[in-house]
Amino acid sequence: MVHQPKPIYTMPGVLAANAALSVGEIQDLNDQVAALMKASVDYFGSEPKFSLRIEINSKSEPTREHIEKFNQLLEEVSAELKLQ
């Protein structure tokens, strides 16, 4: 069963797209970021804001060491990304 994220509730006037993406789809998104930025400014007058949620359904009890190592990888993307 594929996890479907909960709907995103936004403020009036804010447009949002929400989907659970595969790794390949995230790579496709990366390929489209420049075009999405340009289209957002051209069509809506502002740059898009991207949010990311990473979920891991661990098959065993995660160790603190594994979480820390994973967080080090996430930190290479953003200091704000951390498994909790």
Q: Structural class, please?
A: mainly alpha
For the secondary structure, the number of strands is 0
Ends apart, CA distance between termini = 24 Å
For the record, the count of structural domains works out to 2
The percentage of residues in β strands lies in: under 5%
Catalogue the unreliable spans: none
Tell me the series of helices and strands, N- to C-terminal: HH
- Radius of gyration using CA atoms only: 16 Å
Mean pLDDT: 91
Shape: elongated
> Number of DSSP helices?
2
The major beta sheet can be summarized as: none
The amount of helix comes to 40-55%
Fold and architecture overview:
- The protein is mainly α and 84 residues long.
- It has two domains: 1-53, no CATH class; 54-84, no CATH class.
- The chain is 40% helix and 0% strand.
- It is built from two helices and no strands.
- It has helices at 23-44, 64-75.
- The longest helix has 22 residues, at 23-44.
- The mean pLDDT is 91.
Name its key features.
84 residues, 2 domains, 2 helices
Sequence-ordered SSE layout with sheet pairings:
Elements: H1 23-44, H2 64-75
Outline of the structure:
The protein is mainly alpha-helical. Helix content is 40%, strand content 0%. The chain has helices spanning 23-44, 64-75.
